[in-house]
Design goal:
The chain is mainly beta. It contains three helices and 41 strands. It has a domain of about 230 residues: Immunoglobulin-like, CATH 2.60.40.
């Protein structure tokens, strides 16, 4: 059967090479023809209409060698049928045995052989959809924001792809329904920005592309080609209804006080998510009785001797859809703060350079970060019975495109519960001053009403308000980069729906760097050096409390290696004491063989024992690995050890271990096992009050089977447990275990 497939594909490729229009090498405009035929997405390119598709050659290698002819040939074919954009790609390889491909989770294909394209449907050179697949057709998609310089890979659209390995390399077919894209609702021919890209990982990570790259430009999407055609296409109303049902049984206990397992029986849940494409360029989303449980456990992090709250990324689908519309320089909306909502409604869209977004929800738990100049904490509102308090949430964002690759915007967030409220108002902008230079700014004002408990427990006033701003200029060309910024926050500024840990300070930063490139036979092909100086002052009295000088160097080379090393000095004022601190770091990664990546980090620095306000020494060592054992089995692990010394004696030692392993039975079906482990041992002889610390080991595990037809139609069944060992017990004790299942199905109407 495999041989027969090779024969079919070979005949199809021969036919494609003989017919079909192509793009002139001097012209970057691609004409997209139309067909009345449908496609069977199997990666073979054997449909007759491919002969009439526009042929597009990948003309340049842009990394590591710059704008030269690629070392391997790649050809794309593009056409549309009124309902979908159809792309076929033929990736030739002089040694197909070295092709790197495996069955992976969606969006985990980076580092393997991949092909795909990016498309700027508004042709405004600001945002683009990215669609990539590996030779097995496994998908990776994202939204690229060229203005903010971010790429959001959490965005998941429903589209079709398939791949086939051949004797000449591999081929893929991609079908992108227009209803998953947003584009201007205009009649006649449309012009979209487009680029075709191939990643070819061998000794180097080669990047081939249709469009050349000018390293003296700070924008990416302003350099890609154009595609014309697509007359009379429409996204349609695109109503998507995704009901779910879930069940779980949890048991808990609390050794040594309570050793018997306690359970309230099986908990059943059901709800529905709705997604409606109101127009070609706007989407309304809603959820009723949402299932906001996380299928994936957060990685373990060290929380000992830390002054600031830890950050955990969002993983829940409802919040991830259209999240890029709320982006600003500062994270005014960090949706992990909406912990347990009853419902959610969200509307996002763009029209004629106007972007808009709104979100409303009610959260059964009200927790937020209380920032400070030298520390932060998390506060939770509770009623007289100690129960969590519900709060109303509302967020709105508007942005206007101005000039070339520039934007201005406003945003407001609101959270309230009884006598508590927090409102934030923001104005921001990004302006392209010239090809390599940008000016960014953001001004924010917050107004908060604080509960009686907050006033009594935290010493707050009944009403607090504050101002914050950031002004930044940056230059980045082929060789040189330099930047300067000014940031200032009043001590009463808060963004209770966002993520901000430091206020009550003003910070000035200035830095410069230089980049150069090696010759073809050098081990390292790119070098970067950078120096930076920063200083902080309290806003209350303008006294300086932190001053940092840092220098670093980054290198990129063969075996897809990278190395980053540097160091510096810091003067830090804390609790009426100046601490003189030096710090050094080195980290890097390498692929000794194509299927195995190995990385490490070493950090050594002077630090502070915040419990006793005395100088200490911080040592952190870590290694991580990513091993594609075979096409089906992936193993990833990281381990880090932290030693903290005071007067050359160890104050505490911490070990963190994270294990992630997947076994794929097919492209849609896999089994995953996760382990999170942390162990902290204290030297109580160095503590004034030894009872304030306890040696603690924590372990959590999860075994999960998944069958996923697409990002929103999936079946899960799994088991998880967690436990601990500390000074109150004499052995490791489990304290929680859960058996759970969930099924969701996306109806596209």
């Amino acid at each position: 059967m495999k041989k027969q497939g090779y024969i079919i594909i070979s005949f199809a490729l021969a036919a494609l090479m003989a017919t079909g229009p192509s793009v002139n090498a001097e012209d970057s405009t691609i004409s997209i023809p139309k067909t009345d035929s449908n496609i069977k997405v199997d990666g073979k390119l054997d449909e007759a209409f491919w002969a009439n598709a526009t042929k597009v050659d990948y003309r340049f290698e842009t990394q590591p060698r710059h704008n030269i002819k690629p070392i391997e040939k790649t050809t794309a074919y593009i056409i549309e049928n009124g309902e979908s954009l159809l792309v076929g790609i033929v990736a030739y390889d002089s040694d197909p045995s070295k092709i790197q491909a495996s069955y992976k989770k969606r969006d985990q294909i980076w580092g393997e052989d991949t092909v795909g394209f990016k498309v700027d449907t508004f042709n405004d050179e600001r945002k683009a959809y990215n669609f990539f697949v590996n030779p097995y057709g496994i998908q990776g998609d994202s939204i690229e924001d060229d203005v903010l310089g971010r790429e959001d890979s959490s965005w998941d659209a429903i589209w079709n792809s398939a791949g086939q390995l051949t004797k000449q390399g591999y081929t893929v077919e991609i079908e992108i329904p227009f209803k998953v894209l947003r584009f201007p609702n205009t009649e006649g021919r449309k012009v979209w920005g487009i680029d075709f890209i191939r990643f070819y990982p061998r000794d180097y990570q080669h990047r081939f592309a249709y469009s050349p790259n000018d390293r003296d430009l700070s924008c990416i999407l302003c350099q890609i080609g154009k595609a014309e055609g697509l007359e009379n296409i429409v996204s349609g109303n695109n109503l998507e209804v995704t009901p779910y049902t879930a069940a779980q049984k949890s048991e808990t206990r609390n050794p040594p006080a309570r050793t018997e397992w306690q359970s309230e029986g099986v908990d059943y849940e059901a709800g529905v998510d709705l997604r409606w494409g109101v127009t070609d360029n706007s989407v309304l989303g809603a959820t009723i009785n949402p299932d906001f449980s996380q299928v994936e456990t957060d990685a373990a992090q060290l929380d000992v001797n830390k002054q600031f709250s830890l950050f955990y990324s969002e993983k829940r689908p409802f919040f991830l859809e259209g999240a890029d519309y709320f982006n600003t320089q500062y994270t005014l909306l960090h949706t992990r703060n909406i912990a347990d909502p009853d419902f959610g409604i969200k509307y996002t869209g763009k029209n004629d350079g106007n972007s808009y977004a709104a979100l409303v929800s009610r959260d059964q738990t009200t927790s937020f970060v209380l920032p400070g100049a030298q520390g932060s904490s998390v506060y939770t509102l509770r009623d007289d019975n100690g129960q969590s308090v519900e709060s109303d949430v509302a967020v709105a964002r508007y942005a206007l495109d101005v000039g070339d690759n520039s934007q201005v915007g406003v945003m407001t967030t609101h959270r309230s519960a009884g006598e508590y409220s927090n409102n934030v108002y923001s104005v921001d902008g990004i302006h392209q001053l010239y090809d390599a230079g940008k000016l960014r700014y953001q001004v924010m004002y917050s107004d908060s009403d604080n509960t009686d408990d907050m006033q009594q427990d935290l010493g707050m006033a009944a009403n607090t308000s504050g101002l914050g701003y950031r002004l930044n200029y940056g230059h980045n060309d082929k060789h040189w980069s330099w930047y300067a910024s000014r940031t200032e926050f009043d001590e009463d500024f808060r963004m209770d729906l966002g993520y901000l840990t430091i206020v009550g300070n003003a910070k000035d930063v200035a830095g410069a760097g230089y980049r150069w490139y090696g010759d073809d036979d050098d081990f390292f092909y790119e070098y970067k050096v950078k120096g930076e100086y920063s200083v902080r002052h309290f806003t209350s009295n303008h006294d300086k409390y932190e001053q940092t000088r840092e220098a670093s160097m980054k290198l990129y080379g063969r075996l897809r290696s990278s190395l980053n090393l540097g160091g510096g000095s810091r003067d830090y004022f804390f609790e009426q004491i100046w601490f003189d601190q030096d710090f050094y770091f080195i980290n890097g990664s390498i692929r000794p063989v194509s299927q195995w990546k190995l990385g490490f980090n070493i950090d050594v620095s002077d630090d502070i024992d915040f419990t006793h306000i005395r100088p200490g020494k911080y040592y952190d060592y870590g290694v991580y690995t990513e091993w594609q054992v075979n096409d089906e089995w992936y193993l990833g692990a990281d381990v880090s050890e932290t030693d903290f010394e005071v007067n050359n004696e160890q104050l505490f030692d911490a070990l963190i271990f994270n294990l992630n392993t997947n076994y794929h039975f097919s492209a849609k079906s896999y089994l995953r096992f996760i382990v999170r482990y942390s162990d902290v041992d204290y030297n109580t002889d160095l503590y004034v009050d030894p009872d304030q610390v306890s040696n603690l080991t924590r372990v959590s595990r999860q075994l999960l089977y998944t069958y996923k037809w697409n990002p929103r139609t999936a079946f899960y069944i799994g088991y998880s447990d967690n436990g601990f060992e500390d000074d109150t017990v004499d052995k490791f004790e489990k304290k929680g275990r859960t058996l759970f299942t969930k099924f969701s199905y996306a109806f596209q109407l």
